[in-house]
């Protein structure tokens, strides 16, 4: 009976973990569809706006938007159904854990290439604007477009982000150490330009902050995977592997994953929410001729939460597999099957 209970519990946790990861990704994609192109989303499609406090537009939706809402709702249902179906299949915990690892790694790789390409491109455009070269190179209309945050975001940043997604599919050997190096190089250029050539502009400091923020938020999932986060090992280090796995399951289910969902829900629930508001308005800093990437720094929290959900789910599955396989540590610290 205890065996059956453990199997039932592990299957339930596996279903919840998979559903959480799938729904987090769907939630983020639907967020941009809802507030970017006025798609209905699941709540309005099912007429649940009053229950969740979501206002339905008075003008209603046209046929195309209604069909899109049905597709959005269907995808949510398919995600939940697939999580339940896969969670009921036996002996796939390690496979699912590695799958979650790969998803988290892809999100981080995409974000790495995005901040690299967008950072360089926006810094160059900001330099051209400061020096007045943008009108010479792009003409009056092009120069005026570059000066608008929304135009630069739509026609420069977003295409580069899609390009980053394609690069991340092929290039899988990227390390965030390179982003750290870029921060150092950018700061070094500021020192050289300021103290040797007497040249300093706002966009130079913006680039450092842009990449610096990315280092801290994007590296969190990788650090969790490598168990590199600082923890106070007063008791944990001396515990047996089975006990550690149980504690990791509790921490992941009750603290890790809920925290990530809290960031997503609080930040993306409405158009004026903490993360949506700067993203949808292409918010920029008030520091003169700086870079137009402040709204993307708000999006860093989405990358952080999404990558951490996948990594926490992988952590959960590995811990479940440790218990299921009855793994322990021998005296030499190597894993053995008891």
Protein model, in words:
There is one protein chain. With 338 residues, the chain is mainly alpha-helical. The protein has two domains: 1-90, no CATH class; 91-337, no CATH class. The protein has twelve helices and two strands. It has helices at 2-37, 41-45, 49-52, 63-87, 93-131, 133-146, 149-170, 177-195, 202-225, 241-268, 276-280, 294-324; strands at 327-329, 335-337. A two-stranded antiparallel ribbon has the order 1-2. Helix 1 packs antiparallel against helix 12, helix 5 (93-131) packs across helix 6 (133-146) and helix 5 runs antiparallel to helix 12 (294-324).
Compute the number of structural domains.
2
| Helix segment tally | 12
Helix % is over 70%
Structural class per helix/strand content?
mainly alpha
User: What portion of the residues fall into strands of 2 or more residues?
Assistant: under 5%
Rg (C-alpha, Å): 23 Å
What is the ordering of alpha helices and beta strands? HHHHHHHHHHHHEE
Summarize model confidence as the mean pLDDT. 85
Describe the sheet with the most strands: 2 strands, antiparallel
Main-sheet strand order equals 1-2
